[in-house]
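TOPIC: backbone geometry
CONTENTS: sequence, structure tokens:
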Amino acid sequence: MAAYAAEQEIDFFVSELVAHWSEGDEYLAAKEYRFNGRVEVESDWLFKEIESYIFNGLLNKQLMPDEDARGYASKILIEDINEYYGLLSSSLNKDGVFHPLLRNPIYKLDIEVENVEKSLYFIIKIENVYVLTYFMKRSRR
């Protein structure tokens, strides 16, 4: 996750950011990133997508003892994500207003990345800041 000053329209901002990522830096080698647009999504859809990244491998829901444990894990994940974005929002505004993720427009970004099997990028605007979050599954080569 990263936060950026929201000084431009989202599509223009993300296009410039993705071009910058493609150049690489002292920490990451240059690679192909391509921004193909965005779509507004509902929070329920987003949480299901995030779960597909979180609950795999060691946290695979199939390894949990029963349906109660799986339901509890999902519930806690949603609460933690909302609280995280809410705390971020309360630190960004002078009145300390709490804006959970559920109350902000959420945009799924269609970003293709070289050597990445699956990715989820989304952006929200809190106050005057864009908060970009991503999850990815890298190709095993």
Observations:
- Residues 43 and 102 are 6 Å apart (CA to CA).
- The helical segments are 10-23, 43-54, 67-92.
